[in-house]
């Protein structure tokens, strides 16, 4: 089985962002309409269920806030916590909260809310964090302390970045009043926008929170609309139904770039892609042979896929760590060499290739998945592509149900 997963190595693909270049229609009305390339999930409104992917943070950054989080000022910028310190013995971290930080219902953000948010957290890296943290103490209404079982240099990396959602804070009294399920449909956060309405999988309407501690947003109303189909997003952009959209690839992006009144942007982000081979740990699988795995990587035509998917804007890499990460070591990707791939397969006793079940592309990158399937089949690695809805893919990936057919 082959899975095309997100966030690292073999093929780095930068998302194409499209904006209207003239004065946008929403400026006078204070409204921005955003065509999302993914389906809005209820769990994204609750930091407690943050997945190990960047996508939910599109919503979290709008509705909620964290003690510390990545911002333009740095990867661990003080937010709801105006400051934090580590003890000399490295066994505790103390956060001092901002006195002017409030939730959307007017209640102040307190140390009790921080303790409650951490204890109810069950998302990405929850087991790791809770296995390292001995206790969370609400020292005072504006000060909270995390006690560790032993020194752990990576605590702030997992707590104060997008490695998890454990540092994002929700109001204890409100959650206990409405219940866990109701909170996901009508959340109250401490972020720059409050939820006006939410239709799961369809639309999320947000309005600027005037009492946000940093400053009220300049755009009064933000509307996020799920538009999973690329053609639908492009059409909505051209008709003015939305003002901005992400992930327009290949010919669609090129069409928009040539259309007067629009600008195509290609920001360099840390998202990347790799081929994930769960069956490599099975000694009976062809993927257990290093030569077969090397053959697969020589088979992928990264440059052609780069040009087709992102008009050549992406940076190719051979590392599992994006180059922009601190201390990342740069590795060039293996060369596209089908002849070398066939030779390696023959050496591994697969001169005629082999059949290996399903290929699951990371939603919604289906066209990239088709290109990779074609590359693999060209040297005899035969697989069937199976497209899945994003939420279903995440659930199957998390539960380790993506296996060979």
Fold and architecture overview:
This protein has 405 residues and is of the alpha+beta class. The protein folds into 3 domains: 2-13 and 270-398, Dipeptide-binding Protein, domain 3, CATH 3.10.105.10; 17-29 and 229-265, no CATH class; 47-185, Dipeptide-binding Protein, domain 1. It is built from 14 helices and 19 strands. The strands form 5 sheets. The chain has a 7-stranded mixed beta sheet. It has a 4-stranded mixed beta sheet with strand order 17-1-18-19. A 4-stranded antiparallel beta sheet has the order 7-8-10-9. The radius of gyration is 23 Å and the shape is globular. The model is unreliable at 5-29 (pLDDT under 50).
Short description:
With 405 residues, this protein is an alpha+beta fold. The chain has helices at residues 26-29, 57-63, 111-120, 126-132, 155-159, 172-178, 180-185, 230-239, 250-257, 290-299, 302-310, 338-347, 366-378, 390-398; strands spanning 2-11, 17-20, 31-36, 65-66, 68-71, 74-78, 81-86, 92-97, 133-140, 143-148, 168-169, 193-199, 203-208, 221-226, 244-246, 262-265, 273-276, 354-360, 381-385.
